[in-house]
Design a protein that fits this description.
Blueprint: H1 6-20, H2 27-42, H3 46-57, H4 67-74, H5 78-85, H6 92-102, H7 109-144, H8 149-156, H9 178-193, H10 198-207, H11 215-224, H12 228-234, H13 239-244, H14 257-272, H15 281-295, H16 300-311, H17 322-325, H18 333-350, H19 357-364, H20 386-401, H21 412-420, H22 429-441
Helix pairs in contact: 2-3, 2-9, 2-11, 3-8, 3-9, 4-7, 7-8, 8-9, 9-10, 14-16, 15-16, 15-20, 15-22, 16-19, 18-19, 20-21
Length: 451
C-alpha cells in the first residue's frame, strides 16, 4: 500500500466528525492548531504533545452516539442543536434561552409543549445522559483505534469544567486530564473565532477563566494570541497540511493493512451509532461485500480494499439530521434531497485521504442505478464499476432485511424476491446471482434466512 501518515488519515476523517457536530469544515483541524500552540506554550514534552495532538483531532469521536436521543428528547434537528449548543456559556439565562429556542422548534404546539415540559423537569438528568453517552463512546472508539489511555481519557473528559460543574464526572481543577482542559479551550476558541474575530475569541475564554477553563491555560493562550501569524494560519487554506506536519516525531504508528482495517471498522461504528436503525449496518454491508467479492473472484487484496469502502460507504450520513434519518413517515422533497446529499458527503470526506481517491468514488456511488436513475451523479451502465455494484447489492440486501423507522425487518426470502424485481435496473444480475448462491449455501450468515 502507499505510504500514509496516521495524522493525515485521522485529520481527513475528522471532517466527518465536524459535520456530525454541525461545525464548519475543518473544526477539529483548527482545534488541533490552537491546542498544540497552547501545549507548546506550556512546555509539554514530546510524548505529551503527541497524546494531545490526537486528543484534539479526535475529540468528537463519540459525537454521533447521542444524535438520535437529542432528536427524540428535544424534537429538533440534532445538527443545529449541536452547532448552537457550542455557543452556550453554561449560565442559566443562556441555557434556558437555548432550550426554549431549540426544543420542538419545527414541531406542532402540543408536541413542543410536551417536550419542553420533560426537558425543564428533568433537564439535569437529560444533559448528563447525553454527555455521558457521547464521552464514553468516544473514549471507547479511541481505544479501538489503538490510542493510549491519555487520549481516551482526554476525549472522555472533554466537557468537564475547571470549577467542577462540568460533565460527565464533575471533575474539578487538576483532576481534569490536561488534554481535556486544552481541547475544550481550543473548541471554544474556534467556535468564537469562526467569524474571523480574534478579539471576540480571546474575550470569551478570558471571561470563562476560572469557571470553565484552567486560568494557567488561558494565560498561555493570551500570549499565543499576540502573534498575528497564529491567526493568519488559522484562517489559511494551508492550515490542514500544516497541522498534518505538526505531529510530534518519534511516535508515528505505521498504518499497515491491519491497522487500516481497524480504523475503517471504528469509523464504521461512528456512522452506525448515528441512528438506532443503522446499528451494525456498516459492519454487515462490509461482511456481505467481502463474501460477494470472494464469490465473484475479486482478488484477495482488492476484496480487503473493497470491504473498507463498504464499511465507510455511509460516512456521509453523519451530515444528515436524525429528524430525517429516523422519520417514521414519508420524506418530503426537501428531506429526500438532504438524504441524497449523504453520497456526495461520503465522496468529499474519503477523497481527503490520498490512498482513498478511487475508493471514495466507488463508495459514494452505491446509490447509482444501472438505468441511470440513481444519485448523486446519475451514472448508468458501464460507468458503474463492479466494486460499486457489489457494495450496492450488499447495501440493498441489508437495508431491506433490517428494521427501519417506517417498517419492520423483511424476511430474507421475501427480500430476495423484492430484489429480483430490480435486477437490471438497480441491481447487477451477476451480483444478485452470487448473493442468492451465498444465501442458499450459508444461510447462517444471513439472519432470518431459511436453511
Amino acid at each position: 500500500m502507499q505510504s500514509l501518515k496516521l495524522s493525515e488519515l485521522m485529520g481527513a476523517l475528522s471532517h466527518a466528525l465536524d459535520i456530525t457536530e454541525g461545525q464548519p469544515e475543518g473544526h477539529c483541524v483548527r482545534c488541533c492548531w490552537i491546542g498544540m500552540h497552547i501545549g507548546q506554550g506550556l512546555g509539554l514534552n514530546n510524548d505529551q504533545l503527541w497524546s494531545l495532538y490526537y486528543t484534539l483531532l479526535l475529540k468528537d469521536l463519540g459525537c454521533s452516539s447521542n444524535a438520535a436521543r437529542i432528536c427524540q428528547l428535544y424534537v429538533t434537528d440534532d445538527l443545529a442543536f449541536k452547532r448552537d449548543f457550542k455557543w452556550v456559556d453554561g449560565s442559566l439565562p443562556q441555557v434556558l434561552r437555548f432550550v426554549l429556542r431549540q426544543t420542538g422548534a419545527q414541531a406542532g404546539l402540543m408536541d413542543r409543549l410536551q417536550a419542553l415540559g420533560g426537558i425543564l423537569k428533568n433537564g439535569d438528568e437529560v444533559a448528563q445522559e447525553l454527555i455521558q453517552t457521547r464521552c464514553t463512546r468516544g473514549a471507547d472508539i479511541a481505544r479501538q483505534l489503538r490510542f493510549p489511555e491519555s487520549v481516551a481519557l482526554g476525549i472522555h473528559a472533554l466537557d468537564e469544567h475547571w470549577n467542577g460543574q462540568g460533565r460527565p464526572d464533575q471533575l474539578a481543577g487538576a483532576a481534569i486530564p490536561l488534554n481535556a482542559r486544552i481541547a475544550l479551550l481550543a473548541q471554544v476558541i474556534d467556535v468564537h473565532h469562526h467569524g474571523g474575530d480574534p478579539a471576540a475569541a480571546l474575550a470569551e475564554v478570558q471571561a470563562r477563566s476560572g469557571s470553565w477553563f484552567d486560568p494557567e491555560l488561558v494565560k498561555v493562550f493570551t500570549q499565543v494570541s499576540q502573534d498575528p501569524a497564529f491567526w493568519h494560519m488559522l484562517g489559511s487554506a494551508g492550515l490542514e497540511q500544516t497541522v498534518y506536519h505538526m505531529e510530534p516525531g518519534g511516535h508515528e504508528l505505521p498504518v499497515d493493512e491491519d491497522y487500516l482495517d481497524d480504523i475503517t471498522e471504528a469509523f464504521g461504528q461512528v456512522v452506525d451509532a448515528k441512528s438506532p436503525y443503522t446499528a451494525g449496518h456498516s459492519a454487515r454491508v462490509g461482511l456481505y461485500t467481502a463474501l460477494l467479492g470472494e464469490a465473484m473472484q475479486v482478488p484477495e487484496a482488492r476484496r480487503r480494499w473493497l470491504k473498507r469502502g463498504a464499511l465507510l460507504h455511509d460516512v456521509g450520513k453523519l451530515g444528515v439530521s436524525n429528524c430525517i434519518l429516523d422519520k417514521p413517515g414519508k420524506l418530503d422533497a426537501q428531506e429526500w434531497q438532504a438524504v441524497q446529499r449523504h453520497a456526495s458527503y461520503t465522496e468529499a470526506i474519503l477523497s481527503r485521504v490520498r490512498i482513498f481517491d478511487e475508493l471514495a468514488v466507488v463508495s459514494a456511488a452505491h446509490h447509482e442505478r444501472l438505468d441511470g436513475k440513481g444519485y448523486p451523479k446519475g451514472l448508468a451502465g458501464a460507468a458503474i464499476t463492479l466494486e460499486t455494484r457489489i457494495i450496492t447489492t450488499a447495501d440493498i440486501f441489508d437495508a431491506i432485511t433490517a428494521a427501519r423507522p417506517y417498517r419492520g425487518a423483511v424476511p430474507v426470502d421475501q427480500t430476495l424476491r423484492m430484489m429480483a424485481e430490480n435486477v437490471g435496473s438497480a441491481i447487477d444480475a451477476d451480483c444478485f446471482a452470487a448473493l442468492q448462491q451465498l444465501v442458499a449455501r450459508s444461510p447462517e450468515l444471513f439472519p432470518g434466512a431459511q436453511p
